[in-house]
Write a sequence for this structure.
C-alpha cells in the first residue's frame, strides 16, 4: 500500500541515487568534456567545460545534502519550521548560482544558455515555494500561540 | 506588543495557583504560561470567557492596552 512514508522513502532513495551518480561522474568529467569537443563544431573548450562541470558538481552535492535534510525533517513530521524555509532558500540559491555559471559559460557554448534557463527557472519556483513556506510558518506560529 | 496580559495580578488577587486555573479553564499549564508571559499571539473568546468566569472579573481586568 502506497503511503506518505513510502513517498518520502522513494524521494530519499532518489537523492541517494543522485549522490551515487555524482560520485560516479567525477572521474569521467574530463573525458566527457573532450567528447563534447569532438561532436561540437565550436572551438575546443574541454578544459573550461571540465572546470565548469566540477564547480557545478560542488553545488549539486550541496543541493542534494540540503534536499536530504529537508526530506529527513519532513519524515520526522517537522514541516513548517524556519529550518526548512532556510533549506529551501539555500536550494533555490544553489539553482541561481548554477544558472549564473552557465549563463557566463554561454559566451563559449551557446547550448549552456538552456541549462542556465532550466536552473534559473527551478530556482525561481523554489524561491516562491520558500515564500509559501515562510508564510505557512508564520500561520503555524500564530495558531500555536493562540490560547 | 501594546496589549499587556495582567493575569498574574488577577490570579494573585483571587489567590489561585497556575495549575488550578489551568485545570479549571481546561488548558495545559504550558499554554497558561504562554498567556501569562505575554508570548501569546491571540486569545480565544471561549478561553477569555472561562478565565473571567473562574476569576470573577471582566476582560478589561486581564487585558490592558498600553502605548508602545
Amino acid at each position: 500500500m502506497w503511503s506518505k512514508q513510502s513517498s518520502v522513502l522513494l524521494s530519499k532513495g532518489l537523492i541517494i541515487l543522485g549522490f551515487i551518480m555524482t560520485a560516479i561522474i567525477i572521474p569521467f568529467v574530463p573525458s566527457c568534456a573532450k567528447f563534447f569537443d569532438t561532436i561540437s563544431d565550436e572551438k575546443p573548450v574541454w578544459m573550461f567545460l571540465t572546470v565548469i562541470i566540477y564547480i557545478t558538481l560542488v553545488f549539486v552535492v550541496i543541493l542534494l545534502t540540503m534536499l536530504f535534510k529537508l526530506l529527513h525533517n519532513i519524515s520526522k513530521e517537522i514541516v513548517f519550521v524556519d529550518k526548512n524555509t532556510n533549506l529551501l532558500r539555500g536550494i533555490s540559491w544553489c539553482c541561481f548560482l548554477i544558472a549564473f555559471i552557465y549563463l557566463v559559460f554561454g559566451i563559449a557554448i551557446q547550448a549552456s544558455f538552456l541549462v542556465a534557463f532550466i536552473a534559473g527557472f527551478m530556482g525561481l519556483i523554489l524561491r516562491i515555494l520558500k515564500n509559501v513556506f515562510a508564510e505557512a510558518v508564520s500561520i503555524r506560529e500564530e495558531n500555536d500561540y493562540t490560547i | 506588543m501594546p496589549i499587556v496580559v495582567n493575569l498574574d495580578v488577577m490570579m494573585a488577587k483571587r489567590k489561585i495557583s497556575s495549575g488550578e486555573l489551568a485545570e479549571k479553564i481546561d488548558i495545559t499549564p504550558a499554554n497558561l504560561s504562554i498567556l501569562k508571559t505575554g508570548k501569546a499571539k491571540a486569545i480565544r473568546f471561549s478561553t477569555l470567557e472561562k478565565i473571567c468566569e473562574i476569576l470573577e472579573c471582566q476582560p478589561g481586568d486581564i487585558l490592558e492596552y498600553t502605548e508602545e
